[in-house]
Design goal:
Radius of gyration: 17 Å
Order of helices and strands: HEEEEEEEEEEEEEEEEEHE
CATH class of the largest domain: Mainly Beta
Strand content: 35-45%
CATH architecture of the largest domain: Beta Barrel
Number of domains: 2
Largest sheet: 9 strands, mixed
Distance between the termini: 19 Å
Structural class: mainly beta
CATH topology of the largest domain: L,D-transpeptidase catalytic domain-like
CATH superfamily of the largest domain: L,D-transpeptidase catalytic domain-like
Oligomer: single chain
Low-confidence stretches: 3-36
């Protein structure tokens, strides 16, 4: 959401992963084996090995239907999006000739069905877990946690929304030393307080910061801020469609 202002001035050349491209491996310390994050009563999009699936749209428009076999689409998603970024969505489940996908639009958590032939399904070993109370972000690759870093989250009046989301955009703001740092991820999450912000629709994101001393506090408009070295590392590693689980 805060990165919407940066999007208006973002350079045309995006650092978003190209469709079909394999995610780059971040240069990291040896990964630490810890228990996989789980949630009772919630369906998470990764399997026991920590692998999820993403859907790359193959045509200029992606038709989304309310149910398998429906004749009329309820939503048409432009591909690439208005910023020129390939349309990649997180997969909920697959059924024969249809795939159920998480939508990048309001309301949060909405899903829709697309024809299998309209997308290319790829596996993704990465995911992010955000822990609001402890002000921590974790990057996972398969069964291993490869990064744990402090964050800034939303203030009490503009809280960071909890739930299951995914990465929809990767942007490179014009000023790497500015408020959004060198990179900014757009998420499928939206503020539940701010319907409009900085010319955008209240979209929530993960981005760098020029105020690292605020790490560990709840002072943002809903976005998640990390130190610039951490956002650079995430930008090298994460493909579009990566799950982002924001929990208390």
């Amino acid at each position: 959401m805060e990165e919407k202002h940066a999007q208006q001035h973002a350079q045309k050349k995006q650092r978003a992963n190209k469709p079909g491209g394999r995610p780059k491996r971040a240069h990291a310390r040896p990964a630490r084996a810890v228990p996989l994050p789980r949630a009772s009563g919630r369906k998470l999009p990764w399997r026991r090995a920590g692998i999820s699936e993403v859907a790359h749209a193959v045509n200029r428009r992606l038709a989304v239907y309310g149910r398998p076999g429906a004749k009329r689409a309820t939503v048409l998603l432009q591909n690439p999006d208005r910023l020129g970024i390939p349309r990649v969505l997180l997969v909920h489940s697959v059924r024969k000739r249809w795939a159920r996908l998480y939508m990048p639009t309001r309301p949060d958590g909405r899903t829709g069905w697309v024809r299998r032939r309209a997308v290319r399904l790829l596996r993704n070993p990465y995911r992010i877990v955000v822990r609001l109370r402890s002000h921590r972000l974790e990057l996972w690759r398969s069964k291993r946690r490869v990064l744990r870093t402090g964050i800034v989250v939303g203030a009490s009046a503009t809280p960071t929304p909890r739930g299951l989301y995914y990465v929809t955009q990767l942007l490179k703001p014009p000023d790497p030393n500015g408020a959004y740092g060198p990179f900014s991820f757009g998420l499928s999450a939206h503020s539940r307080v701010l319907k409009r912000f900085a010319g955008g629709n209240g979209q929530v994101g993960i981005h760098g910061t020029n105020q690292p001393w605020l790490i560990g506090r709840s002072v943002s408009h809903g976005c998640i801020r990390v130190r610039n070295p951490a956002i650079r590392r995430l930008a090298r590693a994460l493909p579009l469609g990566t799950p982002v689980w924001i929990r208390a």
